Amino acid sequence: MTSRKPCFQIFLLCSAIALVASSAEVASADGPLVLDKATGHYKDLSYEALSVEGLSWKERVRLFGGETVHYAELTDEQRAAKEAELAELLRRIVIADRLIVHPPYEADRLEEIVRKWLDAQTQQIPSAYDGGDAERLRHAAVGFFRAYEIFGAEKYRDAGLKCADTILAKQWPKGHWPWGDYGEDFVRIQDGFFSGPFWVMLYAHKVSGDKKYFESARRAADVLLSLQRPGGGWGDQWRFSGQGTRRTGVVHGISFNDSATNDAFRMMVMMYHLTGDRKYIANLGKLGPWIAKANLGKGEVAGWCQQYHDDGRPARARPYEIDVPYTRVIPWHVGPLLTWLYLMDGDEAHIQLLKRAYATHERIRKEDLKYLADWKAIQEVWTDSPSYARLPYRPGLPDAYLPDASNWGPTPLGRMHPLMPLTSKQIREYGGYLHQDRPNVSAMGKLARAYQAPPGGGNIYGYSHTATKVGNGMFKVRRVLLEHKRGGREAVLRYYSHPTKYTPDQYLQARIDAARRVLDYRNRSLAVDWGDRPGSNSIGAWKDFRWVARKHKWYSRDAAFNTSGPFSGTVWYQWQFLYDNKLAHGKIDADAAARGGRGLEMYRNLDSWDVLGEWCMACHELENYFDVPIEKE
Is 548:542 a contact under the CB 8 Å cutoff? Predict the structure, then answer.
């Protein structure tokens, strides 16, 4: 396959750093984590206890997300042994294919099915970037571009560019994209309405070299830059006319909700790397002190709500988004922001604040574990709930908690439903935030065991809203703290960095690892679900590219572990199998196989060898995205 990557490399770290935490097998000096067999949960996941010692692959990625594999250079003797190992693995792949499907071979047949599906999709591209087709076009562009990079067929690149052109045609002259029926005056920042098209434009520029896509991305970044708030972040929305909107969310303030600030932050950093213009990063350094100021926690507690006024006072938005700390803000928004800032300016205050937030979560998790029997009864009896049917409450992941972390729960109708027993002190200090007439988890457990109707007319979605949305999402924070414990900032930076091109020795080892994945029985068994029957999760059963979003929370939402059902990751196992098969046989070159560092990744924390990876960062590949001269405030 022809390489299409920027021709530059960054020498990231000295060789001494490479010795720190260079693989996932580095053991903690404190010993392994202890699993409580009675509860099925770990007894202690505090910063001091974090370790990967003795963990299985599944346990490791559920706790810490995907790995970053760094290949070392080889001696002549090691290289000869590796070359012999690769030859043997390729021999085994041929035998394995013949045993399962003959003729044609397994990988060939799967590629034929995938290409047939892609060919059909080239004739079904939505004609307008509007309504539900807006998301379909973004997904299709990503799917087609990745197919082009893997298979090298220009018809897939052209199909992706057709999607990009349709999106580009709807861009307003100022640089933003339409949202609903508000017209050019309105800008919706959160929920990827702004950032989604931006990244598609950069991907289109990468695969085509056409400057019109880069200029589109630049216009988008420039208008967004003009909307940056004094504290360094962004609000949910804006109207150039100054008129109000019917939409919820802050205008004159900073929002973490639905990634408003995180998405914009990522865009600014990427435009700095693309242009070298410091205007994009000039005020990002203000965000660290602002986050510290916006902390709502008391004492050693740390936590943030979802929206704020410019001066750091919490703001309310939708009825369930009130001015108390929200658990999901830590793994999704503040956690990544503090990590990025830390890797840019090296200020240990960022990581210390993150440790406090994580310690707060761990304190809640340990208390939650005392009520597992109640949660089990709720799960088993009240199964009609849309959340419990899919994902039960996870200890330590309530929607929100009080500023002193003495109680927590969902936030329906503008107040928090406390899951722990209420105390007179809590009522005295936080009564205005609380539903004081709702049952706590023990009372709900008793109702469930007695087969009584759940409170709220059966709508108990809120009891695990964060668990449903975040899943195992705390692994992003936990991974950062694990690496920090192993080797400080250098170890965290190493985890987030990766080459843009493999040396011959690195490429040889990458091919060996790919061959091993091809031969892994689980990977093969998932990939061979080729049917298009109802209920199949094979690519042939999908009507469009919505499977692209399946990688959005690959480990956090368990798609990587599910072998069947609506949340199965089968379609991505098919893509991974094809990609690994081609890489093992040397049909994906050393340039295309290494796609740069993780950079400012959001939810994924995928493995460095993943077929999709952090594709937004891969639109412009760098080893180290954090070489950014932000100013400390």
Answer: no
- 462, 571: one domain: no
CA angle 487, 488, 494 (to 5 degrees): 70
Q: What is the pLDDT of residue 247?
A: 76
- With a cut of 70, say whether residue 529 has pLDDT above it: no
Question: Which tokens in the block code for residue 154?
Answer: 């220009």
Whether 442 and 539 share a structural domain: no
Enumerate the β-bridge partners of residue 401: 408
Domain interval for residue 404: 361-469
CATH number of the domain to which 224 belongs: 1.50.10.20
pLDDT(633) > 80: no
Report how far residue 333's alpha carbon sits from residue 29's, in angstroms, rounded to the nearest whole number. 31
Is the CB of residue 357 less than 8 Å from the CB of residue 302?
A: yes
The chain-wide mean pLDDT, for the chain, equals 89
Exposed (0-12), middle (13-18) or buried (19+): which is 521, by Cβ within 10 Å?
Answer: exposed
pTM, 2 dp: 0.92
pLDDT band at 533 (very low <50, low <70, confident <90, very high): low
| Contact (Cβ atoms closer than 8 angstroms) between residue 244 and residue 296 | no
Q: What is the pLDDT of residues 194-225, one digit of tens each?
A: 999 999 999 999 999 999 999 999 999 999 99
Q: Where are the beta strands (DSSP E) in 268-352?
A: 307-309, 314-315
CA–CA distances in Å: residue 299 to residues 296, 323, 356, 385, 594: 10, 18, 10, 36, 45
Asked if residue 114 is part of any domain, the answer here is yes
* Total number of domains constituting the chain: 3
Q: Are residues 180 and 292 in the same domain?
A: yes
Q: How far apart (Å, rounded) are the C-alpha atoms in residues 46 and 482?
A: 10
Angle between helices 335-345 and 348-368 in degrees, nearest 10: 150
Burial class (CB in 10 A: 0-12, 13-18, 19+), 442: middle
Measured distance CA(215)–CA(303) in Å, rounded: 39
DSSP assignment of 252-283, as one string? Answer: SEEE-GGGHHHHHHHHHHHHHHHH--GGGTTT
462-487 tens-digit pLDDT: 455 666 666 677 899 999 999 999 99
